[in-house]
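Q: What would this chain look like folded?
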Amino acid sequence: MVIWWLSDRSGAAALGEALLYEHRSMSARHRLKIGYVGVSITPYFAEKYKVREIAVAGLRAFAEQMDFDLVAIERPIHSKEQAEQAAREIKAAGVDFLLVQNAACSMGEQLYPFIDAAPKLGLWSIPDPHQDGQVQLHSLVSMSHYASLIKSYFKGRDIPFKWFYGGTDTDKFRDRFTLTVSALRAEKNLRSARIGWIGGVSPGFVGMLPDEAGIRSNLGLTIEALDLADVVKRAEAMDAGRVQKASDEIRGVARQVALSDPSSFERVTRFYLALLDTSEEMQFDGMAVQCWSTIQALYNIAPCMAYSWLGSDHNFPVSCEGDVLGAVSMYMLNLLSGRKGSSTLLDLASLDPDRQAMQMWHCGVTPRHFANDDGIAWVDHVTLGRNGTDGPYGVSGDQVFAPQPVTISYINEHADQLLVLGSEIIDHPSKGYDGTRGWVSNLTMNGERIDIWDLINTLTVKGVQHHFAMGQGDLTGELMELAAWTRMSLLQPIPYAHYAQIDGVTV
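A: My prediction, written as structure tokens:
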């Protein structure tokens, strides 16, 4: 049912559009739970215009499309006492987010019980059916009243909230609500996530060491360290028949398998299965695994193929070089995108200022669903062992990324600051360095266009890590909303200048 004044589009058209957007997170273990109440007072006409019934019907459709649980109080809430009873029901249900709709004009005392009913609130108003004559609903003024109460009367409580306006059939409501569902689902799953850290960081990469206490405090997730040697022992003991089956499958998707040491394919397959079993047994949501130099000494491989396959075929994020921050950033993008394949971890390897483009590259870990029509090849590692004195080492992926919108992000070591870059992989005259790579252009930071020199200046002056998580699709809005709910600040641009720019010093 659609009430005519909430949208100038027909109900059928609105529903059809809504059904086109079906967001199902492939990475989330925990379902989001959203509550609804509609408050009003009797001199106004919420019942006459079926405001609550229409709201609940629209939210139920969203719950099906966006894959969350809805806890709706459908009865009228006309008094403080009725609000108190509804708040008790909402709190008992354990909702993650509560939509308090001003179904019509509402009093402040009707808000008070809901302050403690959920950790986050949505304030929702709708337009009146007419803009002349007697006011019928007076919803907007009540939403403003509620926002002012939260910021003034309850200012010591630091209550997070977001406002909404319009019916569930309107673009404005749907766009804002979709971002909220995506971000809050990601936050809920981050707070219960487990990240495996296997082998520590690669030599010299101490700048990537996480502040485990800070990450736990700000995002809630757990980091658990394991010994790389134990995973290698598991790989060596893997059942030969299982290894052969997996090896045949992984070979079968490649455009080419070109290895100086063909036996390395079996060893890397064993390592992939060992990581898979470890992740399942430990209930990890992602892993950071050292890929050099310890594993070459222990097992004589480059494990890139294992990470690529886990990302492609298990939607499981694995960051290389023991980068825990990268693993968290990848998992974050996976949660927000809801796609079947994982994000990836890359270096910023080269610049093309004339095209306002930069080459994102790594030595072979990217999942194969990023590849252009040429697909992926399994080859020797592009840097390790290439001088012939300590290798060769296999197996690494080689692919050029297909043109597509992507989002680049990374959390800092305390998980209190977030990099948010929108971009687009483009066709480029250069195929880029051997490995897994693509050129990105049309860059934005925090939703605003940014010149490539301003970006490089920002990253360098701020000392941002040299790794970047990259996910498919434009997730700029989702990341910015997640940052707001988790109280992470957004990295802000520092415009390029010829003179020295010292972080924290104003000149």
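The chain has two domains: 4-191, 194-490.
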